[in-house]
Amino acid sequence: MHEYAFVVSRKHDYSMRRSIILLISMSLLLVTGCDFFRTLAGRPTSEDIEKKKVEILRQEQEMLQARLDSIRREQQIVQDSIAALDSIRQYGGTILNPAKLGGLFATKLEARYHIIIGAFRVRANAETLLCKAKEAGYVPSLISFNNGMIAVGLCPSNNIVSAKESLKAVKAESFCPKDVWILLNE
Question: Helix 160-171 and helix 46-91: axis angle, to 10°?
Fold first, then answer.
């Protein structure tokens, strides 16, 4: 009978150990959650996942802020352009499209705006004004139109605000006639 008690006692000890191990495992699971097992498996923990979510949100916020800044810059450019156009009108300047002058004749203009200081039917007259502009330090160019006119252009620009400033500066020059205008190359 003593042997039987020893076997029962041993089974009871084994069962008790198993219960204790199970209780410890359950306690670890409750205390650490799934992170313990994720760590054992080499997977990211909930803290790692949360950090990644925060990083993704931060990157998205930076991207949205960059887009917003870009939109604000574009809005400012539009507002500056409108103000420059109003200023040109008040200053007595005119903006013309080449189509209104019969179109360009084999002249490809690289910039959107050109200050036109004169347009002539006789090429020699255009070249005379071109020389005067060169002497004043400008880099003029001849622009030919389909209607036979040859214009002298200065200060090519892709920005209406800088075109307005150039118009103001050119109008102050001694070689510049009163009827200077801006060519809008569209």
Answer: 30
In a structure prediction context, what are the per-residue pLDDT tens digits for the chain, which is 186 residues long? 555 555 555 666 667 777 777 777 666 656 556 766 677 777 888 788 889 899 999 999 999 999 888 888 887 776 666 655 555 555 555 555 555 555 555 556 788 888 888 888 888 988 899 899 899 898 898 888 777 778 888 988 888 788 888 888 888 888 888 888 888 777
Provide the residue count of the chain.
186
pTM of the complete model: 0.52
Q: Annotate the chain with DSSP letters as a single string.
A: -HHHHHHHHHHHHHHHHHHHHHHHHHHHHHHHTTHHHHHHHTPPPHHHHHHHHHHHHHHHHHHHHHHHHHHHHHHHHHHHHHHHHHHHHHHT--EE-GGGGT-BSS---SSSEEEEEEEESSHHHHHHHHHHHHHTT---EEEEBTTS-EEEEEEEES-HHHHHHHHHHHHTSTT--TT-EEEE--
Residue 156 to residue 158: CA distance in whole angstroms: 7
